[in-house]
Amino acid sequence: MEKEQFIKTYSVQRKKTDSIKWDALEERFGSNDLLPVWVADMEFATPETVRDALSERIQHGVFGYSLVTTDYFQAYQGWQERHEQSKFQEEWLSFSTGVVQSLYDLIDCFTEEGDAIIIQTPVYYPFSHAIRDKHRCLVTSDLILDDGRYVMDLKDFEQKIIDQQPKMFILCSPHNPVGRVWSEEELSAVLTICQKHQVLVLSDEIHSDIVLSDHQFCSSVSVAEGKFLDQLILVNSPSKTFNLASLLNSHVWIPDEDLRKTYQAWKKQYKQTENSLIGQLAAKVAYETADEWLDGLLQTIESNYLYAKKRLAEELPEVIVADLEGTYLMWLDLRSYVDKKQIKQVVQDEGKLAIDFGEWFSPRAKGFIRINLATTPEIIEQSINQLIGAIQQ
Ligand SMILES: Cc1ncc(COP(=O)(O)O)c(C=O)c1O
Questions:
Q1: Ligand 1 atom closest to the CA of 39, numbered from 1
Q2: CA-to-CA distance for 204 and 201, rounded, in angstroms?
Q3: Ligand 1: nearest atom to the Cα of 41
Q4: Which residues does a 6 A CB cutoff place in the pocket of ligand 1?
Q5: Alpha carbon of 161 to ligand 1 centroid (Å)
Q6: Burial of 312 (C-beta count, 10 Å sphere; 0-12/13-18/19+)
Q7: Cα(393) to centroid(ligand 1), Å
Q8: Mutation test of ligand 1: which of 106, 178, 182, 240 has the most ligand atoms closer than 8 Å to its C-beta?
Q9: From the alpha carbon of 40, which atom of ligand 1 is closest?
Q10: Mutate to test the pocket of ligand 1, among 121, 124, 208, 328 (most ligand atoms within 8 A of CB)
Q11: Domain locations in the chain as residue ranges
């Protein structure tokens, strides 16, 4: 679907709809008069096919205990095939209420208090929150910037593993916030290190469908034709792709039978939640029908990114914009213009923007910000104007 038609058909106003992004600004940022380009959801409605299926189900009027939605896995598999993604097996799948919830569960299940867990920073902040909340030791290996593009520091990563002996590595693929879609070679290198040192890999692939042109996503399960399946757990969800986060339906994929048995036993003891009927129905119909919708969304994200990048290059050429290969999150280094200590004053108090601050992703990323591009071109234009205006002042 053409970008213009996508924007015209699916843009929605979200203020006063109990949206965290729009209606929790006072609570989260201490001010209501900000333009929100923070938390990762979108100003776009899910496809009509999904809304129609939900309406029909709602009209039925009964929301009692439910089975897994009929043909759910076939719908997922069809989507994976059409989008040239990996083949998963149905027996690997369990449902959860969200990827972050699964991170907390899998840390509980596969590690003990005091164990070390490694992540590659800057990274989606619930990774470090989960590790700390669960009283595990946080080990970080910083990504390095190589000509506008972040890469893994494999030497540092392996050394940290040797020194601190983590039990688990939480991989973010594609990577939020630096926008990388890791290549098979990169994944193979990092998974080989984990295999060598017996580190269990938890691969968060929630952004796997949000991949921009010229890039190809590779799931950890497919790397080296499945060579790492016995030390791998994958989490993903339809929520990021189709804007369904509040419907509480996500996936945990465990290819290895022993790991799966351990998780099932843990779940029996600690997790007796039902599936989300509405969440599963929405996801199933989206997997069956939302190809064109996704195409329109990806064009919109890419166009917003190119616009923002161009404007910044023209007016603030020293801002470093990380190359966006995947995700809809743009990562900016403002340190050439703004003193790290004044970033909130400039961007939020003067620029009137609600963004994600770099230090949420790593203490060493003060002076960076993350902007959400999954919105209308008007909101992106306005937010870039406000950012440029505040910095130039
Ligand atoms: C890498 C990553 N994992 C997980 C999530 C959130 O997943 P959920 O809403 O299913 O907890 C996000 C949301 O932005 C994310 O970027």
A1: 14
A2: 9
A3: 14
A4: 40, 98-100, 124, 172, 176, 204, 206, 237, 239, 245, 250
A5: 25
A6: buried
A7: 35
A8: 240
A9: 14
A10: 124
A11: 3-47+291-392, 61-289
| CATH value of 61-289 in 3.40.640.10, 1.10.10.10, 1.25.40.390, 3.20.20.80 | 3.40.640.10
CA distance 260 to 319: 46
pLDDT for position 147: 84
Q: Which of 120, 171, 206 is the pocket-test mutation for ligand 1 (most atoms within 8 Å of CB)?
A: 206
Alpha-carbon gap, residue 304 to 384, rounded angstroms? 10
Judged by phi (left if over 0) then psi (alpha if -120 to 50, else beta), residue 174 lies in beta
pLDDT tens digits, residue range 217-242?
Answer: 999 999 999 999 999 999 999 999 99
Task: Say which CATH architecture domain 3-47+291-392 belongs to.
Answer: Alpha-Beta Complex (3.90)
Q: What is the pTM of this model?
A: 0.98
Contact between residue 235 and residue 250 where contact means Cβ atoms under 8 Å apart = yes
- Give the nearest ligand 1 atom to 327 CA: 16
Q: Tell me the residue type at 6.
A: F
CA of 57 to the centre of ligand 1 (A): 27
Distance set, CA 4 to CA 295, 298, 305 (Å): 12, 12, 15
Q: Give the per-residue pLDDT at 298.
A: 98
One-letter amino acid of 153: D
pLDDT at site 148: 80
Res. 277 pLDDT band, cuts 50 70 90: very high
Mean pLDDT of the chain, nearest integer = 97
Q: What's the gap in Å between 166 CA and the centre of ligand 1?
A: 23
- pLDDT at residue 359, rounded to an integer: 98
What one-character-per-residue DSSP string does 29-60 give? HS-SS-EE--SS--SBPPPHHHHHHHHHHHHH
